[in-house]
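S1.2 Input.
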Amino acid sequence: MERTRSAIVTAARDLADTGAEITMPAVAAEAGVSEATAYRYFPDLLSLLRAAVMTEDLVAVVRSATRSDDPVERIGQAAEILGRAVLRRQGAVRVVVASAIAKPATSKDRPVRRFALIEHALAPWTDRCGSTQRADVEQLVRGLALVISAESLFALIDLCGLTPDDAIASLATTARQMTAAAIAANPAGPATD
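S1.3 Output.
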């Protein structure tokens, strides 16, 4: 049983790494099992994708890539790292996004890696913010979550016609500008809590 489950997960991961559209029949064929067998192990494509590809620790990737304490630089790197991760497995990510749109109740099961990335990138600044600045910090995090996202990346590529590299650069630029503006408005001296 574990060998079959592992084969299905590996097949989903391999298909996701191609960036191609992912379907349960395609995963089953790649794994060498019937579609019914794949559904016995995973009740839907979303649960399979969560097991196969939505587990990468992007905060660790940002942590290893970042040598600066400058939140503006760090947020740009976070946007680039998330953008590249989304593009690498865009077929799988598109399924997850579509599922969240079509079935909003499944959104709670969707990975929310962007928030961890944003919070890590902003940490040098937010750690110095006092309680009076918390509302501003929370608003910046929410705003950045709209920018540093698969949905924004796909909109820039699909609707604006940008190349993937230009779309990632656009996300990073916008994230840096938002962060720089927030820091300029709230420079965050030592915390006063």
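S1.4 Remarks. The radius of gyration is 19 Å.
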